[in-house]
Amino acid sequence: MNYRDFLQKIIYHCIDPLIKAMLKVGLTPNIVTFLGFAGNIVAAVFFIYAALHYQDASTMGWGGAIILFAGLFDMMDGRLARVGNLSSEFGALWDSTLDRYSELVSLFGIVLYFTEAGPEWFWMGIVTFAAMIGSVMVSYVRARAEGLQIECKVGLMQRPERVVVTALGAILTGITESAWPVAIAMLLIAILANITAFWRIWHCYKVLEKK
Description:
Elements: H1 3-25, H2 29-52, H3 58-83, H4 89-116, H5 122-147, H6 159-176, H7 180-210
């Protein structure tokens, strides 16, 4: 069992009582997915506010905390679908689509934060844009691979890791009132997410060569 599976088991154990409560009140996985997306929009609003009021970096911390909280919904929708036998093909499409929107919206807020922080942070806005590209491409390559009947989950910077790194970077920026923590977080995602995307392409190449 790898570390991701181990952590997933612990989190599922913690959220299962909440999952049962959701089933009782009639919440569907699609609604839970949308709530997670809405949380990321709220986080982006906090980031944009921080961009417009750069002296108040604490707002970045609140945005990071909201991203972390919204990330739980990303786990709960899948768990709810499995426990409640509510899985559907549309649900899978809805989940993947809103996941991409969630990442792009929240990272867009961070791009604005850097572009408004002053000329010295301009390049970090470009780095964050590279992180956006890498994040989307990691998911795209996996989706395209699965369309070719190839399992493609390799790589270092998958969505859970990206959510945690983004959230922690923003939270630490809020605590320290320095842009460096979120800058380092974006640099990590920009590098590792794009490496992961090409890693997956190479993985698919090897699988197709064997066929």
